[in-house]
Amino acid sequence: MAAPRKAREGEVFESVYSVIALVFVLVACVELVDGVAVVDVYRLIQYDLAGVPFGSRLASLNHHAGSSLFAPGTDLSRTVVMIPVREVNITFIREYVVQRQPLGGLIFLLPRMFSPENKDSMGGGDDFDKDLMKNILVELEQLLVHANIPYPVYFAFEDDNINAVLVDVKRNDATGQPATATTGGYKLVVSAPEPRKLASPTVTNIQGWLPGLKADGDSTQLPTIAIVASYDTFGAAPALSVGSDSNGSGVVVLLELARLFSLLYSNPKTRGRYNLLFGLTSGGPYNYNGTHKWLSSFDQRLRESIDYAICLNSIGSWDNELWIHVSKPPENAYIKQIFEGFSNVAEELGFKVGLKHKKINISNSRVAWEHEQFSRLRVTAATLSELSVAPELLESTGGLVDNRHILNEAAVIRSVKLVAESLARHIYGYQGKNVNIFADNSSLTVNPSYIASLLNLLSRTPRVAPFLSKNDPLIMALKKELGDHTIDVNLQHEALDGMFTFYDSTKAWLSIYQVASVTFDLLLLLVLGSYLIMLFSFLVITTRGLDDLISLFRRPPSRKVKAA
Amino acid sequence: MCLDLSLPERERGERERERERRMTVFHFFNCAILTFGPHAVYYSATPLSEYDTLGTSIKAALVYLGTTLVKLVCLATFLQVSENDTFNPYQELLKAVIGFIDVAGLYFALTQLTHRNISQNHKFQAVGLGWAFADSVLHRLAPLWVGARGLEFTWDYILQGLEANANLVFSISLAALGSLMWLRKNKPKALIPIIYACAGIVATMPSITSYLRRGLGWHFSKVVGFELFTSLVTAFISWQLFATCQRPST
């Protein structure tokens, strides 16, 4: 008799616990229903160059939304202005930023097609419009990156939520009523910790070595040809800087070249009498700092054995002209030889290669092309690029516009063919001869799907060097990829040039709250008050009679009317 | 965070945030009036206050709390928590059956509790009022406190307040029908089935609204509108029934 009762008691206890748990679950569910829109936003980069601050200096945000920089009577220092990029007027923004006028915050809305996750093509919409927008974005990016902005600046992608909010905000602004606590509207909140300096950012260089064929009994060092590309990027929004063209295209061409030459070098009969050195360098946007440190770490003998180096920079979106940039004068015999080799192959492939000469100024620390780092250490080098003019500091380093869609895969393939053929003719001594080593449908044909998959991977991975740790998955992946095609793969970790200091906090969540105004609540109070008074009167009349109601007001009321 | 701002700017920011906090408490206050005001108004407007039936209401509220606890235990024991929010007829049927425990609780409150000498007329009103007040406090106070003070404005809490009003009318109607069923001995024979039918409908009202919400996917505002409408209809019907049954004894 006692045992079943004890069992029942145990069951009751269990059900009580489950009841308490249920109550907690209900309360938790109630809390989660909030109706707030949350959007991914990406912060403008914040960095110091030689102690001078640049970029957006704040991260957290808690102000009302506005839609224009020119609303009269608004206190813009308490407003976050949301501007779609297609409506940006560069001159206004430039004036605003340069004159350091106060603002609560700035959010730029980018069209969906610039999102790295956007798989569809940019088709639909005018080509002219797209070009115009790209130009605006490039200008805007340059403006923001070189300005010191004391309020938070964020980038977000347009989606239905944000578009609806923007339409509402514009409508409110149009009625001339600026949004504050008393007039309702939207509140934008980003709660992010204060940005901190990144302690000791590193640049990681990845090198791969393909040794050439040494004849028996030959003790002299084989000459080396170096193929180099920098893989890191820099842009206004470091979380979005995927740099598909600058310099994802260079990295992909380098890896494909490594694959092709590893095929050739795997068989001693076809191994050339040149060593091949492949270098994926970091620190490109910062005056090719990584390349300099990589070269400085070389053995003197190795450096002297380098016949020449080809640097690849932005070769993914050209149509029919490439440029070879050199720092030695074009009359130099080596340069002539290299250029003629490339030029002949280009002619056969149906496009043009031009030669551009830019002297190095040793006293100027600015290094515009990667080959200049080689030239400063007296190694012959040239840069192959679609850019005809040397970019300025932090220009053309993979920004907001540089994503998968501006790439021309055929151009990348042609670049591979150009460099591979030219190098092979030099290595195997076929200069001037009409021979097609990497012909289509041969075993050495360029592999378009390999190129496409690498381009896709790089177009999804932001690669700003200070934010890449020593063991970042990207670096490991590149190391593995290069290691598959070369004999010896090494990583070199160096500290980034002390001139640059970076700050963290590149991604955040923006919460958009819809706030009601005080007038709304006052109105509601009025309505509720009158409702309760009506209810009171109705009940008094129906239960006690009209006379009672009137008498309630005739003499001093013993009980006050219970209204709000 | 705002190290770069000058002192007057920082003060302005703090003042603005203070204003916002006061504003959202204001909204909470509004919704609280809507949710709990009618109960107070009902008590003071009708003769309930004159006959000091507060004790009855409080006892009814306590009975409601006990009933809810029993219901929760049954729900926890018998109900399976489903992953998604779809409408499962078997579960809903079970919930409806458990909902009838409410009726049992009301029966207990009307018949078993010892009340002071108050007329039947006022007894059911006091019990219904206490019942509805406890229901509002238990189900609506916590969400209101947590949610209405938040930054984001939604209509949900105002709709919840309207629902509380409808629930008040339902509770009083159910108490009226209950008192007719269990306390009044001489009822006209013809009306008995109608009384029981009405009581049944009112008792299953929670299941009906839950079906509308989840099964048919009605928006909350539509559901609240439906509740208000049906509450007025049932109030009218139960008033008529009560008045008809009142006539022979008077």
From TrEMBL, chain A:
Pfam families registered for this protein in UniProt: Nicastrin (PF05450)
Transmembrane keyword on record: yes
Biological process per Gene Ontology, one example term: regulation of signal transduction
One term under GO cellular component: endoplasmic reticulum membrane
Segments passing through the bilayer: 12-33, 522-546
Topology in membrane: Single-pass membrane protein
Protein name: Nicalin
Originating species: Actinidia chinensis var. chinensis (Chinese soft-hair kiwi)
Origin organism lineage: Eukaryota, Viridiplantae, Streptophyta, Embryophyta, Tracheophyta
From TrEMBL, chain B:
Transmembrane intervals: 25-42, 62-81, 93-110, 164-183, 190-212, 224-242
Principal location class: membrane
Topology relative to the membrane: Multi-pass membrane protein
GO cellular component: endoplasmic reticulum membrane; plasma membrane
Superkingdom, natural source: Eukaryota
Keywords assigned by UniProt, alphabetized: Cell membrane, Endoplasmic reticulum, Membrane, Transmembrane, Transmembrane helix
Cellular localisation: Cell membrane; Endoplasmic reticulum membrane
Alphabetical list of InterPro entries matching this protein: TMEM147
PANTHER family, per database record: BOS COMPLEX SUBUNIT TMEM147, SMALL SEVEN TRANSMEMBRANE DOMAIN-CONTAINING PROTEIN
Entry similarity comment: Belongs to the TMEM147 family.
Official protein name in the record: BOS complex subunit TMEM147
Species this chain originates from: Actinidia chinensis var. chinensis
